[in-house]
Specification:
Strand content: under 5%
Oligomer: single chain
Structural class: mainly alpha
Order of helices and strands: HHHHHHHHHHHHHHHHH
Number of domains: 1
Number of helices: 17
Distance between the termini: 32 Å
Radius of gyration: 21 Å
Number of strands: 0
Amino acid sequence: MSVQLLPAAPAATTTAKAGKGHLNQVDLVRVLTFASVIAVHVITYTNDGASVTAYGTLTLLHFTRSVFFFLTGFVLVYTYRRRPLAPGNFWRRRMSLVGIPYLVWTGFYFGIIQQVGMPALPVGEFLDYLWGCIYKGIGWYHLYFLLVSLQFYILFPFVLAALKATVRHHKKILIGSAVLQLGISLAETYLPAPSDGDSLLGQLWGNQGTLVVSYQFFLIAGCIAAFHYEAFQAWITAHSRLIWWGLGLSAAFALTWYGVNLAYGHTPGDATGVLQPEMLPWYAFVVLALYLVGSRWASRQATGSRWQRIVAAASQRSFGVFLVHPAMLWVFLNEFDMWFPNHLDQGLPLTLSAYVFAVVTSLIFVEIVIRTPLAKVLIGRARIPFGKPVKAAAKPEPQPAAA
């Protein structure tokens, strides 16, 4: 039941229907994960913090970070595994397509915080606080992903070189990374925080969710899976029953652990901590299951089919949706609250309404922006001229996995 890691072979065609290396299954996985991450944010902000049901649902939805980072490593290595990588060019492109939107959206969300949540600050304090939002990835609750991605982009040329130099040891590297991830998660969850929060260790501890090391296993796993793409694809196809059983059992364990935390007096929010080591099996099996679903879907799609084009278009716009949807959710909860008096008591109707509003308005925003000169600045995508039909990509783009 182990994945046989082999040197890269000619690309399989069953899931790369575009014929030039584009992985259609990745598009679907990206879209499904995005639907889930929006659900995480909507459920969080439309339900009472004491809701056992809502946070039990969030327990299972918190896989999104792991899938995002797996795809980040996967797409990058699949793109560069057979061609040379010029670090300077790579860094300039990545910092431009992700770094600039990160700065722009940090400033935008910081402006919202300043307008509605804080008194006016002196210029010096304002700039200090803005800088803190930038380097800590806390301009808004979702921007940590871009900061972690930027950290990995800096490391990626070295990671790729190391993978190429250690082909025969990838199993050992993967196992070592898993053990390290378990240790990191145990420490972040159960060790007391440093007493001096201003020290270097205290700063690292306080910002653990925005550090690349907190997600290193899923990044490395994605890199190794893509490096041995053909073997990984064959293993996924041959072990679907194992994946589904693992998914079911790990889900049961995750929910049981959530119940144990509740029994020990934790609030629902604390009981569903994202970085808990007990959640790692669930995250790992969700990654495999979503990739399996994407692979089966892609293998059944004719090249250029309607659904392939729809999913490709959704995938292309997903980074922009990721960036703007919290603003749309904020608008809904602050401007349309008259629809839901005592809104945290409204439950499912509020959650569904907020979800639909956030998705639809975000897609409208992105559809407009992607056809303007601001496309690269705001959503890290090349401009699409008005009237141009959407086509499936001819080759994989090393874009953010959340995109």
